[in-house]
Write a structure and sequence with these properties.
Pfam families: TerD. This protein is mostly beta strands and 192 residues long. The chain contains 1 helix and 14 strands. The longest helix has 9 residues, at 181-189.
Length: 192
């Protein structure tokens, strides 16, 4: 059963049978923007959103990052499936897979972010969402809708943090601006 998250809401990453999730995927989906073309005909304008994961230690120091220029974390536990530059197609346009049990013990928090590399604001991007999927079953655990949220070009989607021997996800929904993750690091450090 999926939880439709709102800003600041947390969800524990435990399975209904009491076990913990071991393999998760953060999916990001969106559609191209529909614009009027020549003679009023509708056409689509490509939108290049980028999903990224930032990995932090207990003191809030960035220890690794996964994004379109670095598709795998240093320990191999976090993998980006590749860059989609248009938003064409159905479902997840970009995904980041995380083997939670393999994440380095030094990493306490993973922060998932999205930015508009092509510069469009979220007020104009259609059907944008992020979701967390249990990779072992394919079941959607949580979803966060991003469309129509404002004139910003980047958003801190969610964080996954160690809680005891398991993990918890918190929907952040933090608005910021930036075309790459480097532009977003000051805003991300505020939500750790």
């Amino acid at each position: 059963m999926s939880v439709n998250l709102t800003k600041g809401q947390s969800v524990s990453l435990t399975k209904s049978d009491g076990g913990t999730l071991t393999q998760v995927r953060m999916g990001l989906g969106w559609d191209a923007i529909k614009v009027k073309g020549l003679f009023g005909r509708a056409k689509e304008k490509a939108v290049d959103l980028d999903a990224s994961a930032l990995l932090f230690d207990a003191s809030g120091t960035l220890v690794d990052q996964v994004w379109f220029r670095q598709l795998t974390s240093k320990d191999g536990s976090v993998q980006h499936t590749g860059d989609n530059r248009t938003g064409a197609g159905d479902g997840d346009d970009e995904s980041i897979r995380v083997a939670l049990a393999a994440v380095s013990p030094a990493v306490q928090t993973l922060v998932f972010v999205v930015n508009s590399y092509s510069g469009e604001s979220f007020s104009s991007i259609e059907n944008a969402f992020c979701r967390l999927i249990d990779e072992t079953t394919g079941q959607e655990v949580a979803r966060y809708d991003l469309s129509g949220s404002g004139p910003h070009t980047a958003q801190i989607m969610a964080k996954v943090s160690r809680v005891g021997s398991g993990w918890s996800m918190t929907a952040i929904g933090g608005r910021t601006n930036g075309r790459t993750i480097k532009d977003m690091i000051p805003a991300v450090s505020q939500v750790l």
